Amino acid sequence: MITPLVIAIAGGSGSGKTTVATEILKRVGSHRIAYLPHDAYYRDLKDLPRAQRDLVNFDHPNSLETSLMIEHIKKLKNWEAIELPVYDFTTHTRTDRTIHVEPQRVILVEGILIFAEPALRELFDVKIFVDTDPDLRFIRRLERDIRERGRTTESVIRQYLNTVRPMHMEFVEPSKRYADVIIPEGGFNTVALDMVISRIETLLESKEHNPDE
Ligand code: C5P
Question: Where is the AAA+ ATPase domain (predicted)?
């Protein structure tokens, strides 16, 4: 039996990870990829009063149910389908819905903390870290959180200073050492993207990952 190829994309919040992931989905073909964002595995805070939820440290590894993600990757590697949780960033809760994800030849995993977890790291075949300066990451996050996640400028600034920045320095930045490839400036780096995509294609053609071999 061939083994699915697991590609992992890490990098700080606002680094452009999703842009890189989207480009890989587009160019390798989304029909060949099972896409798992770590964000989908944030723990459900529905039992916590609303005012307290806003103060939770969402940038610490404990805020995510990584054990469930590990279980899902192992299932997909074993050619079994999974139910991906759907998380609501505006209420900090897991919704009742799930997305049915079929096993594919490529599993694409994305998240700020995925290289900080040894048990996750060992499941990855290709590890990419998107490296973007903090000022750009903050500006992107501010715009996105106001537009898509129901936040105010004040709340984004407070969260950035209290948790996002210190946790980035403690967990995300040091995890860069585990990357096989470091892409400066995310999805707009076409040279790096071309290299990564041709490597994925080569791996897909290799004996281990190709059903026709
Ligand atoms: O998409 P991105 O990589 O930016 O998502 C990770 C970020 O989401 C974390 O930095 C965390 O602070 C934020 N987050 C949040 N509220 C939640 C869950 C995560 O602001 N309820």
Answer: 3-134
Asked if 56 and 63 count as a contact pair (C-beta separation under 8 A), the reply is yes
Q: Is the CB of 129 under 6 A from ligand 1?
A: no
Digit-coded pLDDT (tens) for 81-139: 999 999 999 999 999 999 999 999 999 999 999 999 999 999 999 999 999 999 999 99
Q: Look at ligand 1, atom 13, and give the residue with the nearest C-alpha.
A: 58
Q: Which domains does the chain have, with CATH numbers?
A: 5-205 (3.40.50.300)
Return d(Cα 56, Cα 99) in angstroms, integer: 26
Cα radius of gyration (the chain): 17
- Work out the angle between the directed axes of helices 17-28 and 190-205 (0-180°, nearest 10): 50
Give the residue whose CA is nearest to atom 9 of ligand 1: 59
Cβ of 151 closer than 6 Å to ligand 1, yes or no, is no
**SS3 category, 81:** coil
Does residue 171's CB lie within 6 angstroms of at least one atom of ligand 1?
no
* Per-residue CA distances from 140 to 9, 21, 114, 127, 152 (Å): 18, 17, 21, 23, 14
**Whose Cα sits closest to atom 20 in ligand 1?**
58
Reported as half-sphere exposure (CB side, CA atoms, 13 A), residue 198 has a value of 5
- Closest ligand 1 atom to residue 92 Cα is 21
